C-alpha cells in the first residue's frame, strides 16, 4: 500500500512540477524575448563575412571623421521637363536639409540630359551608427522633399533603402507570428475535431516560440551571433511548424496508449517511449543540418544556424516535457468528444494511406520509376531560374527608395547614381584616384573624407547599378587598385561579394549537411541502405521543389531574379525537415520488423499507422512556411514557396509512394548490414498490444 501511495503521489506531482518550472522560466525569459526584434541587423554589410573587401570598406568608413555616413539621393522629376520654379523648389528644399543637418559636402544638383530630372546626392555623418537616428534622418529629409503640381520628389540612395528595409523587417516578427499561429490554429481544429485539444499544442508552441526568441537574444549578446530579419522570421516559422509536428506525433501515439493503459500518466510514459526516439532523432537531424551553416562564409547564413537550432531545441523541449505534463493533468477529457476509453478499440475505418500504399505495392517498379521520372522532370525547371535578384526587385511592393532608384536608372543611363566606394591609404589616395579615373567604365571620381590613415573616394561608373557592366568595372577596380592597398566597396560591391560568398558556401555546406544527417540516420536505423534511400529521396524533392519555383517565380509571380541564398537555405531546410517524415515512417517500419513482420507488411503497417499523422504534420509545416509568401520581401517569398512545395511533395508523393515501394522492392536488404537484414524469429507478434491496467506489473 505504501509503495502504491508513493507512486500515486509521484504521478500527480511530476506533471505539476514540470508545468511550474516552465511557468517560472517563461516569467524570467519573457522580457528577453521582447528584445529579440531589436537585435536584428539588416544592412547588406551585416550579411557579409569580415574578409570581404566591401566589409573592410564599411569598417574603415566607421573610423573616418564623423563615422559612418548616411548617403541619400534627392530625385526631382517632371514629365516633359523641369520648370524654373521646380528647380527653385528643389534648391530651397536641399538648402533646408543642409540647414537642418551637418552634411559631408555641399550638395550639387546633377541634371539629366533631357532636363526632366534633377538629382542631389546628400551625405551626412550626423546620424552615425545609431539606427533610430539614421531612420529619423531619412524620414525628416522625406518630409522636407515634397513635390506637387506634377513635380515628383523622391528620396533614394543606400540610406533610404536601409530605412525602408528596416521598416519592413520591423513589422515582420509580429505579423509572421500572428499569421503562423492563425494558420496552425485552423489546421489543428480541423485535425483534432475537438473544441479544446487544439489549444494545448498551440499554447505550448507559443511558449516554445518565446523561449526561442529569448535564447536567440542570449546568443547575440553572449556570442555576437548575427541575427537578421530573415533568420528571425525563419526561426519563428521553424519553432511553430516543427513544434506542432512533434505535438501531432506525440498526441497521436498518446491517444493509442490511452486505450491500453488505465492511467494517463502510464499512457504518456508509453507514448514517449514509443515515439520519443523518432522525435529526438528528427530534431537532431534538423539541428545537425542547421549547425552545418556555422561553416558558412556569410554572417547571415552562419547566424541562421544557431538561431534555427535554438528554435528546434525549444520546440523539442516544450513538446516532450510541457506538452506531456499538461495533457496528463487534463486527463482523457481533453479529447472530448472523441475520448479514447481504456480497453476500447479504435473505430474501424478504411485508411486512405493504407489504400494508397496497397495500390503502390501492386506494381512497385512502375510506381517507383514513374515517381522518379516525375521528380526529375520537375527538377528541369531549375534551368528557368533567373540570375541574382537586384535590390530594386527585392520588394514585392516597391517603397520610395526603389522607385527613386528606378527613376535614376531611367533618366541617367550613362552615369550611375550610386557610387562605388574606394578606400585608399591616405598617402596613396591621389595615385589611387588617378588609376580609378583611367579604369574602363568609370564616369567620374571624387575624393572625400580623410582620417585614421585612409581616404574615401567615390567612383561613379557609366553602367547602371547591379548590372553585368558595373560588376566588370568593380572587379577591374579591385584588380587595379588592390596592389596599392585600396579596398573597393559600396552597395553594388556588397552584392557582388554576397553572390560570391553564397557560391562558396554551397560547395562547403551541402556535403556537410548530407554527411551529418547520414550519420544520425545510421545511428537511429542501424542500417546503411535505409539512410541512403531517405537522403536520395529528400535531395530529389529539393530539386523538384526548386524546379517548380523556376517555373512560377517569373512567369506567374513576376519576380525578376532569384535570391542568391535560395538554393543553399532551401536545401538545408528541405533535407533536414524532409528526413523528419522519413524518420517517423522508417522508425515505425523498423519497429514492426523487429516484431517479426515481413517487409511488405511492415511497410504497409507503418504507412497505415503513421500516414495520417505524417500528412497532418506535413500540411502544418508546409502551411507555416507558406506564411512567408505573404511577406513583402521577394527572398522570403521564394524561400517559403520552395520549402512549402517541397514538404508537400515529400509528404504525399515521396513518403507514401516512393519510399514505400522502394522498401517493398528492397525487402530485408533495406536494413543491411544490420541484424534485421537477415531473417529472424519475431520478438512479439506484429501489431499485438494488450491493455495495461493501473499499477500492473
Give the integer mean of the pLDDT values. Answer: 86
Strand order of the largest sheet: 2-3-1-4
Query: Strand pairing plus helix content: what structural class?
Result: alpha+beta
Order of helices and strands: HHHEHEEHEHHHHHHHHEHEEHEHHHHH
**Helix proportion range:** 55-70%
List low-confidence stretches: 681-697
- For the terminal residues, how far apart are their CA atoms? 15 Å
Task: Count every helix, treating DSSP H or I runs of 4 or more residues as helices.
Answer: 20
Shape: elongated
Which keywords apply here?
697 residues, four-stranded antiparallel β-sheet, 8 strands, 63% helix, elongated, alpha+beta
Give the topology, please.
Elements: H1 2-34, H2 44-47, H3 53-63, E1 70-77, H4 84-100, E2 110-111, E3 117-124, H5 131-144, E4 152-156, H6 158-192, H7 199-223, H8 229-258, H9 264-291, H10 299-330, H11 352-362, H12 364-379, H13 400-411, E5 420-425, H14 429-438, E6 442-451, E7 454-461, H15 468-481, E8 487-489, H16 491-525, H17 529-552, H18 566-594, H19 599-626, H20 634-666
Antiparallel strand pairs: 1-3, 1-4, 2-3, 5-7, 5-8, 6-7
Helix pairs in contact: 1-7, 1-10, 6-8, 6-19, 7-8, 7-10, 8-9, 8-10, 8-19, 9-10, 9-16, 9-18, 11-19, 11-20, 12-17, 12-20, 16-17, 16-18, 17-18, 17-20, 18-19, 18-20, 19-20
Amino acid at each position: 500500500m505504501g509503495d502504491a501511495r508513493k507512486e500515486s503521489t509521484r504521478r500527480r506531482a511530476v506533471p505539476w512540477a514540470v508545468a511550474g518550472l516552465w511557468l517560472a522560466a517563461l516569467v524570467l525569459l519573457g522580457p528577453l524575448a521582447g528584445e529579440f526584434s531589436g537585435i536584428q541587423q539588416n544592412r547588406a554589410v551585416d550579411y557579409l563575412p569580415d574578409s570581404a573587401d566591401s566589409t573592410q570598406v564599411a569598417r574603415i568608413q566607421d573610423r573616418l571623421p564623423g563615422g559612418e555616413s548616411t548617403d541619400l539621393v534627392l530625385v526631382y522629376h517632371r514629365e516633359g521637363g523641369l520648370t524654373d520654379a521646380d528647380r527653385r523648389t528643389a534648391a530651397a528644399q536641399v538648402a533646408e536639409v543642409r540647414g537642418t543637418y551637418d552634411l559631408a559636402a555641399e550638395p550639387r544638383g546633377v541634371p539629366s540630359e533631357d532636363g526632366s530630372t534633377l538629382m542631389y546626392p546628400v551625405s551626412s555623418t550626423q546620424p552615425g551608427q545609431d539606427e533610430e537616428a539614421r531612420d529619423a534622418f531619412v524620414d525628416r529629409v522625406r518630409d522636407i522633399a515634397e513635390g506637387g503640381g506634377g513635380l515628383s520628389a523622391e528620396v533614394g540612395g543606400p540610406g533610404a533603402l536601409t530605412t525602408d528595409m528596416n521598416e519592413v523587417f520591423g513589422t515582420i516578427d509580429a505579423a509572421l507570428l500572428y499569421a503562423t499561429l492563425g494558420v496552425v490554429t485552423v489546421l489543428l481544429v480541423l485535425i483534432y475535431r475537438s473544441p479544446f485539444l487544439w489549444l494545448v499544442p498551440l499554447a505550448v508552441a507559443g511558449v516554445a516560440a518565446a523561449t526561442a526568441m529569448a535564447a536567440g537574444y542570449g546568443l547575440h549578446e553572449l556570442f555576437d551571433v548575427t541575427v537578421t530579419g530573415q533568420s528571425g522570421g525563419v526561426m519563428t516559422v521553424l519553432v511553430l511548424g516543427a513544434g506542432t509536428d512533434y505535438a501531432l506525433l506525440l498526441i497521436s501515439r498518446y491517444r493509442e496508449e490511452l486505450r491500453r493503459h488505465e492511467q494517463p500518466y502510464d499512457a504518456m510514459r508509453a507514448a514517449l517511449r514509443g515515439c520519443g526516439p523518432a522525435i529526438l532523432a528528427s530534431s537532431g537531424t534538423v539541428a545537425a543540418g542547421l549547425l552545418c551553416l556555422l561553416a558558412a562564409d556569410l554572417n547571415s547564413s552562419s547566424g541562421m544556424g544557431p538561431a534555427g537550432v535554438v528554435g528546434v531545441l525549444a520546440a523539442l523541449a516544450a513538446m516532450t516535457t510541457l506538452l506531456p505534463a499538461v495533457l496528463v493533468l487534463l486527463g482523457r477529457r481533453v479529447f472530448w468528444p472523441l475520448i479514447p476509453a481504456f480497453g476500447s478499440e479504435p473505430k474501424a475505418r478504411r485508411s486512405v494511406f493504407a489504400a494508397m500504399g496497397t495500390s503502390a505495392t501492386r506494381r512497385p517498379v512502375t510506381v517507383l520509376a514513374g515517381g522518379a521520372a516525375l521528380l526529375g522532370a520537375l527538377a528541369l525547371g531549375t534551368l528557368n531560374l533567373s540570375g541574382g535578384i537586384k535590390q530594386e526587385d527585392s520588394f514585392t511592393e516597391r517603397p520610395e527608395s526603389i522607385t527613386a532608384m528606378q527613376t535614376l536608372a531611367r533618366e541617367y543611363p550613362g552615369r550611375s547614381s550610386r557610387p562605388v566606394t574606394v578606400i585608399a591609404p591616405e598617402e596613396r589616395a591621389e595615385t589611387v584616384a588617378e588609376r580609378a579615373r583611367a579604369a574602363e567604365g568609370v564616369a567620374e571620381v571624387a575624393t572625400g573624407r580623410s582620417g585614421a590613415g585612409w581616404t574615401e573616394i567615390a567612383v561613379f561608373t557609366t553602367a547602371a547599378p547591379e548590372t553585368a557592366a558595373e560588376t566588370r568595372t568593380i572587379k577591374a577596380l579591385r584588380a587595379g587598385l588592390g596592389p596599392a592597398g585600396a579596398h573597393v566597396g559600396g552597395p553594388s560591391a556588397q552584392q557582388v561579394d554576397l553572390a560570391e560568398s553564397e557560391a562558396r558556401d554551397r560547395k562547403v555546406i551541402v556535403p556537410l549537411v548530407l554527411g551529418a544527417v547520414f550519420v544520425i540516420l545510421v545511428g537511429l536505423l542501424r542500417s546503411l541502405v535505409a539512410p541512403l534511400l531517405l537522403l536520395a529521396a529528400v535531395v530529389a524533392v529539393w530539386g523538384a521543389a526548386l524546379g517548380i519555383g523556376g517555373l512560377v517565380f517569373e512567369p506567374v509571380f513576376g519576380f525578376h531574379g532569384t535570391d542568391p541564398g535560395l538554393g543553399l537555405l532551401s536545401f538545408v531546410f528541405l533535407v533536414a525537415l524532409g528526413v523528419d517524415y522519413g524518420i517517423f515512417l522508417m522508425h515505425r517500419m523498423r519497429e514492426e520488423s523487429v516484431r517479426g513482420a515481413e517487409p511488405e507488411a511492415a511497410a504497409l503497417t507503418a504507412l497505415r499507422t503513421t500516414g495520417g499523422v505524417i500528412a497532418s504534420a506535413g500540411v502544418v509545416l508546409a502551411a507555416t512556411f507558406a506564411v512567408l509568401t505573404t511577406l513583402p520581401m521577394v527572398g522570403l517569398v521564394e524561400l517559403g514557396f520552395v520549402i512549402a512545395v517541397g514538404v508537400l511533395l515529400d509528404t504525399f508523393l515521396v513518403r507514401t509512394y516512393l519510399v514505400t515501394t522502394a522498401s517493398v522492392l528492397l525487402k530485408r536488404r533495406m536494413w543491411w548490414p544490420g541484424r534485421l537484414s537477415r531473417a529472424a524469429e519475431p520478438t512479439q507478434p506484429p501489431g499485438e498490444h494488450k491493455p495495461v491496467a493501473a499499477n500492473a506489473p
